[in-house]
Structures are given as structure tokens and as C-alpha cells.
Amino acid sequence: MSMRTHYCGLTTEALLDQTVSLCGWVHRRRDHGGVIFIDLRDREGLVQIVCNPEEAEVFKNAEVVRNEFCLRITGVVRNRPDGTVNNNLNSGKIEVLAHTLEVLNASVTPPFQLDDDNLSETTRLTHRVLDLRRPQMQNNLRLRYKVTMEVRKFLDANGFIDIETPMLTKSTPEGARDYLVPSRVNAGHFFALPQSPQLFKQLLMVANFDRYYQIVKCFRDEDLRADRQPEFTQIDCETSFMSEQEIRDMFEGMIRLVFKNALDIDLPNPFPVMDFATAMALYGSDKPDMRVKLEFTDLTEVMKDVDFKVFAGAANMENGRVVGLRVPGGAAMPRSEIDAYTQFVAIYGARGLAYIKVNEKAKGRDGLQSPIVKNLHDAALTQILVQTGAEDGDLIFFGADKAKIVNDAIGALRVKIGHSEFGKKVGLFDDTWRPLWVVDFPMFEYDEAGDRWSACHHPFTAPKDGHEDYLETDPGKCIAKAYDMVLNGWELGGGSIRIHRAEVQSKVFRALKIDAEEAQLKFGFLLDALQYGAPPHGGLAFGLDRIVTMMTGAESIRDVIAFPKTQRAQCLLTQAPSAVEEKQLKELHIRLRAPEAKVVS
Amino acid sequence: MSMRTHYCGLTTEALLDQTVSLCGWVHRRRDHGGVIFIDLRDREGLVQIVCNPEEAEVFKNAEVVRNEFCLRITGVVRNRPDGTVNNNLNSGKIEVLAHTLEVLNASVTPPFQLDDDNLSETTRLTHRVLDLRRPQMQNNLRLRYKVTMEVRKFLDANGFIDIETPMLTKSTPEGARDYLVPSRVNAGHFFALPQSPQLFKQLLMVANFDRYYQIVKCFRDEDLRADRQPEFTQIDCETSFMSEQEIRDMFEGMIRLVFKNALDIDLPNPFPVMDFATAMALYGSDKPDMRVKLEFTDLTEVMKDVDFKVFAGAANMENGRVVGLRVPGGAAMPRSEIDAYTQFVAIYGARGLAYIKVNEKAKGRDGLQSPIVKNLHDAALTQILVQTGAEDGDLIFFGADKAKIVNDAIGALRVKIGHSEFGKKVGLFDDTWRPLWVVDFPMFEYDEAGDRWSACHHPFTAPKDGHEDYLETDPGKCIAKAYDMVLNGWELGGGSIRIHRAEVQSKVFRALKIDAEEAQLKFGFLLDALQYGAPPHGGLAFGLDRIVTMMTGAESIRDVIAFPKTQRAQCLLTQAPSAVEEKQLKELHIRLRAPEAKVVS
After folding, report:
1. Angle at A354 between CA A353 and CA A357, to 5 degrees
2. Closest chain A CA to residue B161
3. Residues of B in contact with A186 (CB under 8 A)
4. Which domains does chain A have, with CATH numbers?
5. A155-204: per-residue pLDDT in tens?
């Protein structure tokens, strides 16, 4: 007989009266009326084992087992007695009467209960192996696997080929910081771990593979925010000879299929499409959470000549913006909540949060409650009411500052209110899945610090048809064939049509003030490849960690990664990174910079 | 209409009279009777495009195109004229009469013809993108994909879950050299790139994932031999609660399925199994090429008292060995060939290659032709003939030295003769697929230099049942639950049952002279995990690059990797590794060791 004939969690009444051999962990043990009951757990779930005193050997062994002991049991499947059926379990109609019980391995007492939901993340990451035994983590990683398998099946069916690209590659220091790997054979030289396989996938298109994908680790040595990891996983895709529209159709089909097959969720078909300019105008964000039923009203023009200096100043500033955010029913909001929001927007650089409560429109100025109405002339007040569409009982928040601050602050406020108790109560939040394509991104954004244009997406993105001339005449007007897939306020993925002609690529480098020599040094192999009949091509990359985090409802991407790093980029389980031997450094032709560098900061 | 409606290579008579839109590269262009014919190529193959002078625009465009131009063509599928059908092509019955021809991208003249089979590897790797367009490379990488997809389907159907393990992990300097990654956040500390996910997959078993797999990059900073790469890909698998036999059955089933579905090859069922001792005795190798029908005959005992010093010396030496290799029909081998073999075995340290030609057995000593028979007494000669089973016309080669030299030299000679013209002609080579399991490896081998035992497999391998006591009493006698899958002289993969009890793991560390403190420092997290009811588990890892190299018949694993490194661990395409900016090193708290280190050696 095999060590195991069935999974515990899949042992059901279909096996009635059969002898089975089960392996798993003691989830709970209890003595009841002289009989020992063991809930035995494996990855598929629990099953109840009954150890009778009549089976002396079994009973003796059962007496010593404790939680998390690893057991092998053979026994016969029988119906549970009336009244003891547990419909929450797959195996809940049956129990297994043990004939043998073998302790495969004992366990010391775990540092925490597996069903404890209040563990600190430090405890969980230090004892990750036990943490991973918890049902939630089991589910998260199995769902992650299911997602990747559905992705692979979809892409396979559509002719995409998984091709591996190098992990030890060339450092091109721009965008994020590279992780470097010193070379032993080539003294003084370094590999870089890839931030993405962008250039390689383009080369594969030039090399006629036609459709490529890879579920691949990427690396960025950045200071970690809540949802970043030094190494993360991309679903990276590229195709030749498809239009932007065809690519978007293909990949929203993929995401729809994944949600359907992994979670039985029907996403809308098709996904709505919104251009970047509209998204910024209405939501102050290029990844708006469409579940929140609140929109900006742009009041920049209206405020140019009001007495209220904060509004007029912003309205007349270069890159200034004034917006109103109408909150239906918001007039009922207590002052304390408004104060809390004022503090909240300060995080995003807003220096205050003006508001008007619309108590009774018909009364005009007197029906409005606000510290600022006295500094707004009648025409402005009228325009505010007309343009926001405010009704009695509403509240209007205002943002006025540089556009970036307004967008960030009021954009965040919009989401905050939508997700609040209040927002949910008054119907400002539509608790469902609201995907969206955001398209027509600008090619460039102006980097004031560096006094130059930088690429919004990356420098290999193609300009929209007809916009090529702007590359030289007016880069700010140049729109890119770039697209992001957004879901409930998260960017799931993004991509673009790439430049396939060497002369256009050179123009973009010029616009970015990358001179020919630098371009050749960094991207010579791409420019070279484009010369040999490079095909029109494009693609996109999805953040797998993020998709699975959304799908599982996990709080952090660390909950969908088996062995994640902390925000200090450390692995608490293995204690990586760690000191290494001097001999190793010598072989790599490097030394530590200073003695104090040895101290962990 | 889409940019493309069909693949060139899949445009067949099924589409007769339909208008199609095709995209691809000019493989060949020829003018014939005032008509221009273009063989248009995409990843699926070629199709013939006809450009008539009547279509003035098409014809004008067709006149300027050259090899490797990227085109889009719309036209109508029609039968080829009688006598011009090409049965070598999928599309050979039809051609497409072009109505539009658009040059999507021009191409400069490629540095070589895509059908040139005599390109140097330097040329190929420098212009890798064009090299990858060649049909052989297209086939290799598509077969590689097919193999991985078959593997994934098989493992999915058997309940294995793909779980990602970290790329940035802890350096445990033993076995091969680690690639190190300096940490920016933790000054003076380093990550290591994984040599394999061995410990993580064991942790996943302790964490109750039950069945794990990953097709994953691994890294070893070794001096590269012909078939090594700094980064290589493993099919890495692990399972709980299965016996060695069950694991082997499972994975030979996987390999059988892959060969069947990817190449329509039926491998034997079941694979033969041979223990390590037998493999060494008969073939001097733990990965014998079973296609070669030659075996060693051990003559160590026979030679202990002969006059011939070379034989007697080896036979009486500690760890000495004398073997004969009978080559049926080998007496016909000319002296020049024997001399060449003598030089060949010298590579492996053999100081000569004695032989006996058996001309006429019946004549006894006089029927044997050899410089050495005069120093061998009659009883020895008789035993040689009896034990090797030599017949008239055979030749017997001899190896006599330390066992390692004999095994290496005569083992290599065996393969060399088997693969030679002679060997194939006289039927010593069975040109088929001959898989084999080699099992029952020793746990340890004695490292004379270090005067200590080292692990043959790795220190997490379980001893065979009943051999645990040898760990302390006689490590050399201890056999491991380890197994290698061998095919035609290549190790495809290998694995073992792991130690799942902390006390056994400690014993193995003691046998290896790894003290408790060192064990805790390096493997503390594993020892810790084993305490919490670690299940019995085991697994194996296959070398994907090697499997695909064998399946494609490629000469090097570099031919089944899209962007490989040279033997100097460089990427000729991107010029990685390369110098980096001082600022980057500063951020990583390292500096180059010496000014001259900057010079590429």
C-alpha cells in the first residue's frame, strides 16, 4: 500500500467502508467519552479520525500526539453518528476509524496557534513555514498558481510562446536602481538583474517569434513602499503585427477568463476605455477607482477673478488647478469628519480643504454654509452650483493648488470618502469589480528638476499616428500608443505599441536628450536590431503579485508571496542578506567601502 | 481588416479564392518572366507571393524590397500552376496574388545568409537576433516551450503546484561558488542568487503544500565547461508522503510523456534501474551510455600476482583497479587507431593502454597478439579470456591504475569506441533512446585533500532504511536514497528522499564535520522547520537546457537558450557584464579592489 491513498480533505462518503491510508498533521485532538478524536489536516482540508481504546496500539500512540505532529493513519471510512455531521467540511459526513496510527514526525509546540488571526507580520515572516500552513496562506498561494496556469493556458491557446530571457544582464541606469552582480571572470565588471525583460522581448519580436510571454521575476532596488518587493513577478507579453485595439482586446479577454475560471467572477465585457486626459480631469488619477461615484468638477476658469486668494492664486498659476468635489448628502457630515479629511489631504501637500455645505439652494448665498462663501462673488457661486450639479444636502470640497497637488490630494480624498462608512451608507461606493483601460498617455512629462523631458512610459513607446512630428516641435503635445489596465484603483498592467523604426527611435532619444553616443552605448543592440526589418510590435506586462493580492483580498502583496522580504529588504526566515567571507569578495574583485559599512544600519 | 489574417506558413489550399492579409519577412525574391516572386516568411513557414506588373503599385514596391524586409501583403489565394507545386511546404500547393504590398520596415543587408550553416558561434551570438530567425533556432526554442508546457500539464494533472522561491537569497558557500548581490539598504551584506531552490522546496513541504514544482533559473559561478551556463533552468519538483519508488515512477512517466508528446518518441516502460555499484563496475560511470554495447570485466583479483608491474601494482594498490574492455571484432583495428585511443585515455590520466588481440584462442598464448602477454602467467591469461568472454577476432583493452583513473579513462574509451565508425559498423552502438535510473548512491565520498567525508548528493539526502547507524560507525558504507535519471550518457535529472527528522539531519552534519554552530548559522531555518512535524518528502530536479539539447540534437545548450553567455560568461549581444558608474558602487557600499581590476582580463 502507498504511504497515502487519499487526501484527508477529499475523504468523503464516496469511500464508505473502504480502508484508506491518510497522512497529515494533527489540527486538534480531543478526548471524549474515552475515545480520542483527531482532526487530521492536509492541504485539501480536515478529516476526523477516531481512535478507540479497543485498538490498544492506536490508542497508545494517539495519547502522545500533540498539535502539528505528522501522522500516518490507516483505517476504515464510516458514517458519523447522527447529529455529529459537520456540513462545513468536505469530509463532514464521515469519520475514519483508525486501525494503525504511526507518528511520522513529532512536533515541538508551535510558537502560535495556526488559527490565530492577530499575528504580527514579524512573527509570521520569522516563522514563515508555520505561517504558510495557515488556510489563508494555503489558499493565497494556490490561487496564485491557478491564476498563472489559467494565464498560461490562455496564452498557449493564442499562440504565445514562453521564452526565457537572461537574469544576468546589462546595467542601464535609468528608471529604477539596478541590483548589481559583480563578475568574477571579468574583473571590475558587473551584471544587473533585469528591471523587466523589455528590450529582450522586443528583440524576440525582431527575431520572428511573433508572440512571446514569460511569467518572470523582475528586480528593482528601490526604497520599499507598502506594496513593493525587491523582486516581483511580471506576466510579460509581446506580439508582432497587432494593433493597439487588438492587443487590448486580447488581454482584457485574458483577465476576464482568469477572473471567471479562478473566482467565477464575470468582469464587464468590454472594459470601458478612458483617455488619460479625461481620467485626470474627472478623477485626478490615471488609475481611478471607478467604484467610487464621485467626480471632480473643474473650476479653474471660474475662480480666476474671485477675492478668495487661495482659489484665484491657484487658478492663475502656471500648472494651477481648482476643482470641486461634490459629495451627495455630504452636508450631514459632522465637522470632526471634515477636519479629519483636512488632515488627510495634507499628506498629499494640500494646505487646507475648503468646503461648502449646500443647505438650501433656493436661498442663494444664505443657503450655503461655509467659511469661504463671503470671498466668492455671486457668479462664481452660481457656477459652482451649476457645474457641480449640487443639490440641497450636498457638500462640495475644493482643491486649489498646483495641478499635481490638487489631483493627488482631491483624488485621494475622493477614494477615501467613497470607501468610508459614510460613503458606503449613502451609496457612493459600488462594491464590485470595475476594470478600465486608460489610454492616450502623453509621451513625455516635463522634469522640472532636470529641465528636460522624460518618458512617461519608457523610451521605446511609439507615438500616436500623426504625432511623430511633435517629437521635434512640441514633445508635450505628443501622445503615446500606451495603455494601462486599471481595476478598482490599482494598475494591473500596462504596455504600449513600441517603436519599430530606427529613425523614430533616434528621434525619441533626441527628445529625451540622450545623444547618439549614449544611445549606442546603452541601447546599441536594440538600435542595431531595428535595422533588420523589425516588425510593428507591442505588448504589455501585468503585475502578478498585485493581481493575486486583489483577487484574494489580501492586505499586502507579502501575503501572496511564499518567502517575501520585509520593507527593509530582508528575509526574516533565512536572514538574507548576510555577511560573506572575505575570500568571496576577493574573487569578485571588490571590497567593502568602509569598516563601518559592516555594521547593519 | 486586421494587420494580419493568417500566418504565411499556415496559408493553404483551404483558403482558396479568399483574400488574406499576411505579414512577414522577405526570405527570397526572384524575377521570372516579368513577374516578381517573393517567398514571405513568418514563424510558421513560407508562402509564395506573386507580384504582377498589372498591379502597378504592388510591382513598384516589390521591385525595391530586399531580403529581410518586413512586409504586409493582401491578396487572393490561388492554386499554383501545374508543375510548380512544392510539397516541402505547408503552403506549397498555393500562392497569393498580391493586391497590396506595404513595406512595414526596410532592412539593411544582413551580415550573413540565414541559411548559412557554417557560421562561427561568435558571429551568431553577436548577431543573435538574426541568428534566432534561422529555422533551426526557431525550432529549438519552440520545442523548448513545448517541453515546458507538457511538463506543466503533467505536473498540474498530478497535483503539483508552481510556487515561486526567492532569487535574492542567502549565501551558503559550499558546493559551487555563489553569485553575490550587494545590498544597498543593509550595508556590507550580500544576497546570493540561488544555486537551486533545494532548501525552499523542503520548507514548502514542511509548510504542507504537499506537491511543489517550479521551472526556475539557478545560478553557479563556475568556470564554464562546454555545456554549462552561469544561469541555467531547472525543472524542480518535490513531494511529500511518497516513497522513492513512487517518485521515480511518477517522474519517469513525466519524461516518457514529454518525449511522446513533443517528439512522438516512445521511451521504454519502465526504465531499467541499476545500482550505483553495478554502474561503476560495468561502465566506470554513474551515467553510462547504454547505447554502447561494451562492458568492463573486473580483473583486479586476477592480476594481483602477475609479473606485469603495471597490472600487479594497480591490483594491489589501495583503491586500485584493473579492468578489461572486450571489443568484439576489435582485432581488426589497425595499430594507428589503437595509438589514437592510447592518446585519448591519457586525457583522463591513464599512463598507457595495454591490449590483447585474440587471433586464435585455440592456440593459447600463441594465438594472442600483445606486448604484454609475456608478463602474464597462464592462469591469468585463461581468466582474462574466460571472464571477458573474448572470442577469436576480439580485442581486449586494459586499464590499471587508481580506480578513479581506470573508471574515467576506460569509461570514456568505452563510449568513444561505441560512437566510432568502427563501433557503429560492427554493431557496438544501438542508435536509440536508452534511459536508465541509477540508484543506491553512497551517502558520502572521501575527500582525501580535506581528509573528511563530503556529501555525494547534498547533505539533506536521507540514508537508506537501516543505514542510519553507519552515519556514525562507517560513513563509507552508508547508502543514500538518491537516484539519477540518465539518458544516453547524460544525467537528465536527479534527486533523493530528504531527511525529515532533525536528529538524523544533525547526525549527517556531524558525519560531514559541520559542527552545531555552523549548521545553525547556515541551515538554522531548515533545522528549525524540521522540528514542527516535517513530513517524509523527496523530489528531484531536471536540467531543462540539457533535456532540450538532447531532444533537438543541438551541439550545445547555447543552441536552446535564446540569449546565452559565452564560455567567458559574457553576453556578446548586450556586452554584459560591463563597467558601472562609481555612484552605483558607492550606493552599494563597495569599491573595486584594485585599479588594475578595471581592466578586462
Report:
1. 125
2. A145
3. 568-570, 577, 600-601
4. 8-105 (2.40.50.140), 136-241+541-584 (3.30.930.10), 292-425 (3.30.1360.30), 435-536 (3.30.930.10)
5. 999 999 999 999 999 987 667 899 999 999 999 999 999 999 999 999 99
